[in-house]
Amino acid sequence: TGIWQNVPEAPPDAILGIAAAYKACEHPQKVNICVGAYRDDNGNPYVLPTVRKAEYRLLEQNEVKEYLPIEGDRDFVYCAMKFAYGREMDIENHVAAVQSLSGTGACMLGGQFLAQFWGSDHPIYVPNPTWGNHIKIFKQCGLKVRKYRYYDRSKNALDFEGMLKDIKRAKDGSIILLHACAHNPTGCDPTMEQWKEIVSLISSKSHIAFFDSAYQGFATGNSEKDAQAFRYAVSQHVPILLAQSFAKNFGLYGERVGTLSIVCGDVVQKERIMSELRSIIRPLYSSPPRHGSSIVKTILMDPALKEEYYQECAKMAIRIKKMRKKLEEALQVAGSIHDWSHITKQIGMFAYTGMDEAMCKQLTEEFSIFLTTNGRISMVGLNNSNLTYVANAIHTVTA
Ligand code: PMP
C-alpha cells in the first residue's frame, strides 16, 4: 500500500555517510581519518584489557540480566560521579545523577530537563564550531540554539575575546554549553586561566554551564586534569549540568554508558530533580542497558583494576600525542612550508588542520583519504603504516 509515499528522504548523517563510502572504496591505500573511535597501531579497533577482565569477572559471577532501576545502576552512578567530580565532592547531598545512553543520551536528558524546568525561552549557546549533534539534540529538546565564537580559523587558535564577548552579550540566565576538554572538532581548549575568566563571567551573568565531558582522561592521559574546568566551576558555585560519556576513555562506544548529573543545593532539591529525571526517562526507554555500566563499575570499584585502567587510558592519550608530533614532522619532510604547529598544540582525538572543503574533497577523490569536509582529521585513524601516505597527500592538496 502507498500510505507512506509522502514520507520524504531525510538528509544522510554526514559522518556515517563517510564511513560507508570508506567501506565501499577499493583503493589499496585507503585511509579513514574520519573515524571517532580509537584504533591501535595496526588500525584495528581496541578493547581495553581491563574491560575484558571485568567482562570475565561478570561472567564468572553469573551476572543476571534483570532490569536496572529507571535511573540506572546506583553503584555505577556513584563511581562515575567520584570519577567526574573528585573524591571530595559530596555526591549524596549535592549531585542528582542518572545513568544515560552514553554522552548523546546525557545531552538529550539535560536538554529536556532544561527545556522543562529552566524554560525554553532561555537559549542554549554552543561553541562555533561544535560537535554537530549538539545542535540537533538541543533543537529537538525545544531549546533555542545559538552560537558563541570559539575558534579563529585564520589563526588556528581559540577566539577567546570573541567567546567572552558573546557569553557577555547573551541575555542573563542563558545556558552555555562547554566542552569539558578535548574540544570536538577543534582540539583546542581554553587554558586554566581562561577557564577561570569564563566561569567568572558565567557566574556574573547568572548563566547555567552545561559541560559535555566526552573525553575525561583521554585528552591529557590524566582524568583528574581533564576534569579541572567543571570542577573549578563547581567550586565557584556556578550551576552546572554535566553530560559524561564512557565511550572514548573506556573504549565502550557501542555499550552506551554515560551519566547526566546536575549539581544542586541540598538533598531535597536532589530528590526532586531525580524524580523529574525518572519521569523523563521512563517513557523514553524505561531503563538503561546494564552491561557497559557493570563493566565500568567493576573497574572503578576495584583499586587494582582501576589503577591498571588509568595506565591503559594514559597509553591511548600518549599514542595520540605521538602521532601528532609524527604528523607535523612528516608534513615538513614532505616539503610543506606551512606552519603546522597547531597540530601538536591541539589535544584529544581530533586535529583541526585548517584545510578547506575543496582540499578535503581532493584528499578523498584523489587519494581515497576519507575525512569530514571541515578539515578535521581523526588522530586515531593515523598509524605508522599510513602516516607518510597521508602527510604527502595533505602536502599535495595544501601546497
Ligand atoms: N559530545 C562530544 C563532544 C562528542 O565528541 C561525542 C562523541 N563523538 C559525544 C558527546 C557523545 O558520544 P557518545 O554518545 O558515543 O558518548
From TrEMBL:
<keyword id="KW-0808">Transferase</keyword>
<keyword id="KW-0663">Pyridoxal phosphate</keyword>
<comment type="similarity">
    <text>Belongs to the class-I pyridoxal-phosphate-dependent aminotransferase family.</text>
</comment>
<dbReference type="GO" id="GO:0030170">
    <property type="term" value="F:pyridoxal phosphate binding"/>
</dbReference>
<dbReference type="GO" id="GO:0004069">
    <property type="term" value="F:L-aspartate:2-oxoglutarate aminotransferase activity"/>
</dbReference>
<protein>
    <recommendedName>
        <fullName>aspartate transaminase</fullName>
        <ecNumber>2.6.1.1</ecNumber>
    </recommendedName>
</protein>
<dbReference type="GO" id="GO:0005739">
    <property type="term" value="C:mitochondrion"/>
</dbReference>
<feature type="domain" description="Aminotransferase class I/classII large">
    <location>
        <begin position="29"/>
        <end position="394"/>
    </location>
</feature>
<dbReference type="GO" id="GO:0006520">
    <property type="term" value="P:amino acid metabolic process"/>
</dbReference>
<comment type="subunit">
    <text>Homodimer.</text>
</comment>
<keyword id="KW-0032">Aminotransferase</keyword>
